[in-house]
Amino acid sequence: MSDKTYPVSEETQARALVDQATYDTWYRESVENPDAFWGEHGKRIDWSKPYTKVKNTSFTGDVSIKWFEDGQTNVSFNCIDRHLETRGDQVAIIFEGDNPYIDKKITYRELHQHVCRLANVMKAQGVGKGDRVTIYMPMIPEAAYAMLACARIGAVHSVVFGGFSPDALAGRLVDCASTFIVTCDEGMRGGKPIPLKDNTDKAVEIAAKNGIDVKTVLVVRRTGGKITWADGRDVWYHTATQAADAACEPVAMNAEDPLFILYTSGSTGKPKGVLHTTGGYLVYVAMSHEYVFDYHPGDIYWCTADVGWVTGHSYIVYGPLANGATTLMFEGVPNHPDQGRFWEIIDKHQVNIFYTAPTAIRSLMGAGDAYVTRSSRKSLRILGTVGEPINPEAWQWYHDVVGDGRCPVVDTWWQTETGGHMITPLPGATALKPGSATLPFFGIRPELVDNEGNVLEGAADGNLCIADSWPGQMRTVYGDHERFIQTYFSTYKGKYFTGDGCKRDADGYYWITGRVDDVLNVSGHRMGTAEVESALVSHDAVSEAAVVGYPHDIKGQGIYCYVTLMSGREGSDDLRKALVAHVRNEIGPIASPDKIQFAPGLPKTRSGKIMRRILRKIAEDDFGALGDISTLADPGVVDDLVANRQNKK
Ligand code: ATP
Ligand code: MG
């Protein structure tokens, strides 16, 4: 843990929506009287029928979670129509292409027309309330139109990341019995076409063998590349939407009607179909988007996630648009045409709020400062991170180099399951500590428990649970409520268990230490893999590190480190020794790595998270059983890791 603290600067304080006193008061109200607190804040969205009930939730028995249950609203209305009068001509979406010469701005009025036309096309194709629509798209505005069109007519979307294989897509089609797909001919990433339509064709075939007959594939023309066409099933998006009416009434939805299904990233096992509903979700993501990013009208906001992840759902599409913000969608990758792309885009569009992942930060840090410092970045005001624990080294670089030391870094801890931010700083209210997600958001009651479920008080290290419900919480695992109860509510009775380990320091700050499954126990000492990784990455030869435990005769568990070096550095036994010494020095002898394997690449999910379960298997020399690797970004790295393993039996 880093012992540095960054107090809120006067400049940030002066324009912040929430200062420390407000945070303290609101937080207390939110946990002492959730009905009153959320009853008030629920009004931030428009309801066609106002709610009279606020919270009706239980974490025991059958586990039932309902918020604003007798209210009616429509998410698409809240994200579009209600802004038309005041900001119809304001830009809603800035599209920045993979190719730096391509961009496009879509106003709220244009957004309204696109979404209405598409909603009418869907209706004409027989899609109705409750039907599941699969969206398999690159990062182009039509992906957002499709999500909003579903919301408008009450269809439930399941966005499948455009980088997934036909198998992964088919699995998700079958899991939620979805027979309508929106896709595109090809995506473009880093100058290379991605064959989305081809993949879709293959997935449709696989789904058919598993009992799901896809009726319609709506195809956006992005590249004009060659594709095969199934008459009667495939429909061009542009012809269908041109012919459709540009007006479509939003359907009144009950607060608890499903909005979307989204499969978790699969870092720890088979992905779960997380179901989110309408009212509480929208209230929660809109509110957290505004306060966590200290969003002010007119700000240009950019979240680099893909719409295929929950971050894209909550903080590219729904939260920002519900707030009438300008949200940037980037089609490409951080290193095309070169590693300075992010910082160029920030200057080009004068981005004020920038939200990305530690994996991107670490890799751009590895590329060297010159890519950053050649840009101005003067427009930046707030920086954010999400997805994994951020090691203090990367935090510091992000803060000092990217933000020139001016911009608070909000390290937001949350999950697909939680819908929105859970533990996070608020820029005007929270002093920052590099590597800590800091304090709970409104309404969130974190608890640390030991393995027996005893609640730990004060400074402590334990399993992170949430004691009570919040409006953005998932409601069930689609089609498998039992799995929902088993996964989240059975380990510690009456609490939502996050699966993450966490420390709380004497100031009440939370430090996520990684998945509980990843905690090391070396000679009786518990430590998070994240701690050892941070120590390794703080060595100047190391760009990334992943640490796992393996059975060790004497110590119980040994420490096995996979290390990716900075470009230009070579692995050697001397460097191994230097790294061991470095970790001993940073943490202590107890954390001495037993094995160090130099790895040109680490096995990551498509969202950039390291799949430690694969690394654990390789470290245990048990690579015959790697489990579900369908969400792995580059299966090729596994072969290299296996070939160079340091623990051959
Ligand atoms: P699966 O549940 O299928 O194994 P996943 O947990 O990777 O996949 P997500 O919901 O995308 O799926 O990720 C949530 C997890 O990411 C959290 O439980 C936590 O481990 C990690 N995480 C996210 N943000 C942070 C953060 N700011 N600090 C530390 N860890 C984070
Ligand atoms: Mg998870």
From TrEMBL:
Catalytic reaction annotation: acetate + ATP + CoA = acetyl-CoA + AMP + diphosphate
Binding of Mg(2+), residues = 537, 539, 542
Q: Which Gene3D superfamilies does this entry report, sorted A to Z?
A: 3.30.300.30, N-terminal domain of ligase-like
The record places domain AMP-dependent synthetase/ligase at 81-469
Q: Which CDD domains does the record associate with it? A: ACS
Annotated PROSITE patterns: AMP_BINDING
Molecular function as annotated in GO: acetate-CoA ligase activity; AMP binding; ATP binding; metal ion binding
Chain sites annotated for binding CoA: 189-192, 311, 335, 523, 584
List, separated by semicolons, the cofactors it needs: Mg(2+)
**Keyword line:** Acetylation, ATP-binding, Ligase, Magnesium, Metal-binding, Nucleotide-binding
PTM comment text = Acetylated. Deacetylation by the SIR2-homolog deacetylase activates the enzyme.
Q: PANTHER family from the entry?
A: ACETYL-COENZYME A SYNTHETASE, ACETYL-COENZYME A SYNTHETASE 1
The molecule here is called Acetyl-coenzyme A synthetase
Give the organism the record lists: Ferranicluibacter rubi
